Amino acid sequence: MIAALLGLLIGFIGSIPLAGPIALLVFNKGIEKRYGEGAILALGSAIPEAVYCGLAFFGFDYLFARYLWVEPAAKLLGAVLIVVLGLVFIFSKTKKQTDTKQLKLVVKFGGRWVSSFFSGLSIAAINPVLIVTWSGVAAIVFSVLGNLTPFDMIAFSAMVGVGIFAWFGVMLLLMKRFQHNFKPETLAKTVKVFGGLLIALGLWMLYGGIMGAIVWGKSLS
């Protein structure tokens, strides 16, 4: 029970900063008033995160300990992905709100909703930084709670996914509630600002990944 509640709390709080690619993608859906698509995208992204969390508990620490090249490689690939997504945000244009007729077709045939789900799923799944992140979280949880049963580890991982989805749901509800306070021009600029922050974050992570790779290379010599 404690492990499940802790997983819910970590998943919720850990998703609050608008610094990751998924957070910015969901935020972008919100400012375009495509709240349903944003929720589905968040749902898709929560699944790989919960899986990575579970894998961390069930042995990813052993993988990093045995294959030292995995961690620096993961950091480099994740940093490049974040920089690319930041560029997409900077050069993207805010789309007009979908009209009611078009929205009904989307719901009926599931085109954009299915696309949003698999976008969130794939972006989270191919982000190797999550493996490192959840391995670190697993180490901290083990140090706090001690030995966990397989059920505790599964419950923690599942509730992490629930917590991630819950935060994005709250964020989208707040954006919908206060949407009248935003102007399209302000929203477009906001997206570009977050894109710049995302690029800065990616470059910082890239620097750290390169330094880590150099240290790893020197350790082999």
Task: Describe what this molecule looks like in 3D.
- It is a single chain.
- This protein has 221 residues and is an all-alpha fold.
- It has one domain (2-220).
- 84% of the residues lie in helices and 0% in strands.
- It has 9 helices and no strands.
- The radius of gyration is 19 Å and the shape is globular.
Low-pLDDT ranges: 94-109
* Helical proportion, percent range: over 70%
| Rg (C-alpha, Å) | 19 Å
Alpha carbon gap, first and last residue: 47 Å
Number of contiguous helices: 9
The largest β sheet comes out as: none
Shape: globular
> How many individual domains?
1
Q: By helix and strand content, what is the structural category?
A: mainly alpha
* Annotation, overall tally of beta strands: 0
H/E topology pattern: HHHHHHHHH
Strand content range: under 5%
Secondary-structure map with pairings?
Blueprint: H1 2-14, H2 21-31, H3 35-66, H4 70-91, H5 100-109, H6 111-125, H7 129-145, H8 150-177, H9 184-220
Helix pairs in contact: 1-8, 2-3, 2-8, 2-9, 3-6, 3-7, 3-8, 4-7, 4-9
Kindly list the characteristics that best describe this protein.
221 residues, single chain, globular, 9 helices, mainly alpha
Write a concise synopsis of the structure shown.
The protein is an all-alpha fold and 221 residues long. It has helices spanning 2-14, 21-31, 35-66, 70-91, 100-109, 111-125, 129-145, 150-177, 184-220.
